[in-house]
Design brief:
This protein is α/β, with parallel strands linked by helices. The chain contains 18 helices and 14 strands. It has helices at about 1-30, 35-70, 75-125, 125-135, 140-180, 200-220, 220-245, 245-250, 255-305, 315-330, 330-335, 335-360, 415-425, 455-460, 470-480, 495-500, 500-515, 530-545; strands at about 185-190, 190-195, 370-375, 380-385, 390-400, 405-410, 430-435, 445, 455, 495, 520-525, 550-555, 565-570, 575-580. Strands 8-11-12-6-13-14 form a six-stranded mixed sheet, with helices on both faces. Strands 3-7-4-5 form a four-stranded mixed sheet, covered by helices on one side. The protein has a two-stranded antiparallel sheet with strand order 1-2. Strand 4 (about 380-385) and strand 5 form a beta hairpin. Helix 2 runs antiparallel to helix 10 (about 315-330) and helix 15 (about 470-480) packs across helix 17 (about 500-515). The radius of gyration is 35 Å and the shape is elongated. The N and C termini lie far apart (about 80 Å). About 30% of the residues are buried.
């Protein structure tokens, strides 16, 4: 007994939490700057929906007139009713078409606004990076922004309009059915019983029982749909990963292992899919039987009144139509139960996604770093760099890098060289202490493998597009950085990260440095794929073309020493740094 009570309380809490999450997801758009246009569209949709319900009431009345005329062989009246039906049907079609168009317009506006909002949150404060590095509870953010937002908007509006239509249909036809039903008189347990509007009560009982049984059968669909969407996204993402790393996999001949990963994820997908099929099969059995019985049920119940000539054939058809409308409106949740389960899973996924983005974004609150804008120097004072689990990587280090003195950061692998650069740039959140930097517009960071966006080669060279130069100047820089042979491909669209070799990508990154002309340039093993001769040309051109730029490099080659005046040595064992002069 206590266990059942505990389960009930838990379900009520979950339901309350779900409603709260749904409200938070929904209200954002309806309180946004687009709310006036959204409410106008919604009011128009509601008005058209009410008009559609009213047309259904008129068509119900037409049933009585038409079938009564048919029963009485009234030829003239039959033709009049057919013309009457044509007008009613035409108006119904017009209302339905424009209701659909306005719904799609509202869906498009809502989806656009919500997608832009999620993208802004995802990109703000480098949340996308922190999610990938530390957000283990969030899978496939791309799928959540593209697919789940679409499903949420479409289903939420569809269910809202569906519930409104069901309620209005019930309200309109309940009175009609109650009035047309008359009373059912019978003897039971030695007493005379009379039930007024018995057809209405029959429809109500029939629908309540059907809804309850459907819920019992299909309640596991929510979790199954939630898991299925994740498995589908994981399977799709694994194939995207292969495409992005095709060359590396080909060199390793890793096809067999990749095939194993694909098949393992696809097996999980199929296993859960068959569980979904089993549940849907049970619902189809139930819904099909429920729907078929609903067709004949009103005739069986009302047949006695027709045979006793209390109602005409038209009256019988009107009663049957009204019963069907009431029963259908009351059975709305039965008809959309499977979709409701999918919708709930989508709401949960979007809610978790938003919550995890907020948690990851605020993860840095566990640490405290003071960042100051200085006129010239790059300095750290009492800086501690930690791993995500809190383990110190560098302890309370202090250093000052002066402009005009290039610095080479050295240390064994795993000592924290790249992580130190991440901390300086501000993308590593697990930092304590004080960092002083020039304005961010004067800083540029180049990783070992530069990012090349989709699009033209010109866009890749000018990325992130904050500075523009003439084609003549751009071609000259390409020649200096030894990728001049690509000059005829400036306007060619391609996936340049796969077209160009790593060495070509690194030389392209040096073109970006010349375009941006930062006062401080941080290079994280940015010449690792270049031969020593080409590496020397890249550094010498930086010195000659960007004399006001201070270069801070991470590298392992001793050949880099001559391009730097100082070295920042990192001691992995002591977790400390030492800034020394280079001869």
């Amino acid at each position: 007994m206590l266990s059942k009570w505990s389960d009930t309380v838990t379900k009520l809490k979950e339901t309350k939490e779900f409603i709260k999450d749904l409200w938070l997801l929904t209200k954002s758009y309806w309180q946004s700057e687009e709310r006036n246009k959204a409410f106008l569209l919604l009011i128009a949709i509601v008005a058209l929906t009410l008009g559609i319900v009213y047309m259904l009431v008129l068509l119900n009345q037409w049933n009585n007139s038409f079938y009564s005329a048919l029963q009485n062989y009234e030829t003239d009246k039959l033709f009049d009713e057919l013309i009457h039906f044509s007008w009613l049907a035409a108006i119904y079609i017009i209302l339905s078409v424009y209701s659909y168009v306005l719904q799609q317009t509202l869906i498009l506006n809502w989806r656009r606004w919500m997608t832009n909002r999620f993208i802004d949150i995802w990109l703000k404060n480098r949340t996308y990076y922190h999610l990938q590095m530390f957000g283990k509870d969030t899978d496939n953010p791309d799928q959540r922004i593209s697919e789940d937002v679409r499903l949420f908007v479409e289903m939420t509006l569809s269910f809202a309009i569906g519930i409104l239509k069901a309620f209005c249909t019930f309200a309109s036809f309940a009175f009609v059915l109650y009035k047309l039903s008359g009373s059912l008189e019978f003897t039971f347990m030695g007493r005379e019983w009379s039930i007024d509007g018995y057809m209405f009560w029959a429809a109500l009982v029939y629908s309540v029982i059907g809804t309850w049984v459907t819920h019992l059968v299909g309640k596991k669909l929510v979790q199954l749909n939630f898991v299925q969407q994740r498995y589908e996204a994981d399977f799709r993402f694994s194939m995207i990963r292969l495409r992005e790393n095709a060359e590396n996999i080909a060199f390793y001949r890793g096809e067999q292992q990749e095939s194993g990963v694909f098949k393992e994820r696809f097996t999980l997908l199929l296993d859960n899919f068959w569980r979904l099929v089993t549940k849907h099969k049970q619902l189809i059995w139930l819904n099909s039987g429920y729907s078929q019985i609903a067709i004949i049920f009103p005739f069986v119940v009302a047949m006695n009144r027709y045979l006793s000539k209390e109602i005409t054939l038209g009256g019988l058809m009107q009663v049957a139509n009204a019963f069907g409308s009431v029963q259908t409106s009351l059975s709305y949740f039965i008809d959309v139960y499977a979709s409701l389960a999918q919708w709930k899973a989508v709401v949960l996924r979007l809610t978790y996604f938003g919550r995890h983005m907020h948690e990851v974004s605020s993860e840095a609150d566990r640490f405290h770093v003071d960042r100051f804008v200085t006129a010239e120097v790059v300095s750290a004072d009492g800086l501690q760099v930690n791993l995500p689990d809190g383990t110190p990587l560098l302890k309370k280090i202090s250093f000052t890098l002066e402009p005009g003195q290039n610095v080479l950061i050295r240390g064994v692998s795993g000592s924290g060289k790249s992580t130190l650069l991440r901390a300086i740039s501000g993308i590593w959140p697990f930092v304590e202490g004080r960092i002083s930097l020039p304005d961010t517009k004067d800083l540029m960071f180049i990783p070992q493998r530069p990012y090349l966006p989709l699009g033209t080669l010109r866009n890749a060279l000018l990325y992130p597009g904050t500075k523009m130069i003439s084609d003549e100047h751009l071609l000259k820089l390409m020649e200096q950085c030894e990728i001049g042979y690509l000059s005829d491909k400036l306007d060619v669209v391609g996936d340049w990260s796969h077209v160009l070799s790593i060495g070509e990508q690194q030389r392209l990154a040096f073109v970006r440095a010349h375009v941006q002309q930062p006062l401080w340039l941080f290079l994280d093993e940015a010449t690792s794929a270049l031969d020593e001769t080409t590496e020397a040309k890249m550094y010498m051109q930086l010195g000659s073309s960007l004399p006001n730029t201070t270069v801070v490099s991470i590298g392992h080659r001793s050949t880099l020493n001559k391009y730097h005046q100082k070295a920042l040595n990192i001691n992995r064992d002591e977790k400390s740094v030492n800034l020394v002069e280079l001869n």
